[in-house]
Amino acid sequence: MLMPPNISRRRFLATTAAATAAYFVPPKLLAQTSSNFVATSRAANANNKITTTPLRRNITVLGGAGGNIAVLSAKDGKLIVDSGYSSCRLQLAAALAAINADPISILINTHWHLDHTDGNDWMHSAGATIWAHENTRYRMSTTQHIAAINATIPPAPAGALPTVLFNSYRTLSDTITTVKLTEYGPAHTDTDISVYFTEADVLHTGDTWFNGFYPFIDYSTGGNINGMVLATERNLAAAGTDTIIIPGHGPVGNKAQLAESHEMLLTVRDKVASLKKQGLSLEATQAAKPTASYDAKYGGGFLAPDLFVMLVYQGV
Ligand SMILES: [Zn+2]
After folding, report:
1. What separation in Å is there between the alpha carbon of 176 and the centre of ligand 1?
2. 275 CA to middle of ligand 1, Å?
3. How far is the CA of 87 from the centre of ligand 1 (A)?
4. What gap in Å lies between CA 78 and CA 103, rounded to an integer?
5. Residue 100: enclosing H or E segment and its boundaries?
């Protein structure tokens, strides 16, 4: 079993909190075991500040609750993409109320990970019907273990589970807005979908894009580096020069930035594949520093370079 060094795990935990903010997990929270990952993550994020950024037309992005949350003010209430950590409920509810008084009618999950689905239960209680890829419900219904960060996630409560399921493509529309949901296939996990707001030309990629950071790839629940490259290519094909792109983590971006991430993914994948093909061990591959030319740009926040190399090595 490949395990990251402690520093990588610490960084991962620290920055799942708020990828755009300087944020550190208090030392007492680091001495966790895999079984209390959920409680530890909630506690570490409970005091996060929520940022509110209006994007275009009737769409706003909320940052700081876990993964980036998109909010569409639709005819029959709010349509929300991802629900953040449950421990951010109070400040998230306040941020939603500040947009308008409309109820939450629909919640869409981009994938099953805790920092995107932990708020499902309270949003469902507040009136939301939850939409997701069918694998998201499967992953949330059963115990999952993410080996790369030694995290065990028990089944979510019944109210948190998505009830409108699909496995390829869905379109939602009212008289003013059309929202397209599209499965990626295995990429960051095997549950990933994109959400495209047609009229506003806004694309939420979930965690198939980490803007400004090396991406986490969850092999334990079906992700792999080649799928991440393919998902990035699909995002590039879906985006025009004016498309606003909401990544799973990091600041809202555009097609040019996404293209830079794509180039990085391809280059690192090919370098790591070449080293592995020459017979180098993981440790020797990490020591060869195949990410060196990108570390200043992508290695500073979310994943340490060595952990990213480990994730790539696993899939080539
Ligand atoms: Zn994720």
Report:
1. 30
2. 27
3. 18
4. 6
5. none
CA distance 20 to 23: 9
Torsion sign across C-alpha atoms 76, 183, 240, 20: positive
User: CA distances (Å), 16 to each of 27, 42, 43, 287, 316, in order?
Assistant: 16, 11, 12, 26, 26
- Say what the pLDDT of residue 34 is: 63
**Ligand 1 centroid to 113 CA: how many Å?**
5
User: DSSP letter string over 37-81?
Assistant: HHHHHHHHHTTPPPEEEE-STTEEEEESSSS-EEEEEETTEEEEE
Neighbours of ion ligand 1 (CB under 5 A): 113, 207
Q: Name the nearest CA neighbour of 91 among 53, 55, 125, 47.
A: 47
Measured in Å, residue 55 CA sits from the centre of ligand 1 at 23
Contacts of 159 (CB under 8 A, 6+ apart): 120, 121, 124, 125
Measured in angstroms, how far is the CA atom of residue 3 from the centroid of ligand 1? 18
How many whole angstroms from its chain centre is CA 62?
14
Q: Which amino acid is at 182?
A: T
- Ligand 1 centroid–CA 191 distance in Å is 10
CA of 279 to the centre of ligand 1 (A): 31
| Residues of the chain falling short of pLDDT 70 | 1-35
